[in-house]
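Model it.
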Amino acid sequence: PISKVTSDHPDDQQAKLAVGIVQFVRAIEGLARDQHRYGLSNQFAARMPIVRLPVPVNPDPEQISYDDVRQLLADFGGRLSKAERSLAEVETDDVKLSLFLGRVRLDIDGDGEASEAESLWKMFSAINRGVRQEQGEGFSIGFDGADVHWLRGYCHVLTAFCDFGLAYDGREWFQRCGHLLYPDVDTPYEFLRKGSFSGQF
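Modeled.
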């Protein structure tokens, strides 16, 4: 377990940093897995914060309700907060950690396997066109104390988006427009699920 790493080595700042990074990446993996579960469409999601993660096409997505969306945001925010708390424990004066993040693989479709198609560099290249495999896999990041503060700040920014989404009642909006993001939305407006939409968001 991740918690055992820091409990066994309470003064190892590099281990604490590694735990925080792993928890952050797991938060991203969890969000991507949830979006894949419900068959998020990348057509419009690519333009929106939080949901713009590129996920593989799910041929058999589950139906999603507004309550499911709220749970998705709450779960993601909770995982980010956990990562931020771990990073807050890192003494940043002289910590360093080198990682090949492009070689990290995620289990986005929840099948228990992390394939090359689910690698972090693939997700990055979908957002930043032109990144080749050798570039992604060969890209090493040397994390130091400044990066700890940056990543904590990024956790706060992403958590704020989650909090913003949870602070307002968007049920009516989602029931009317959710079909632009997901193929099977639980909505009383049945006619929205029968047609297709090819216009602008």
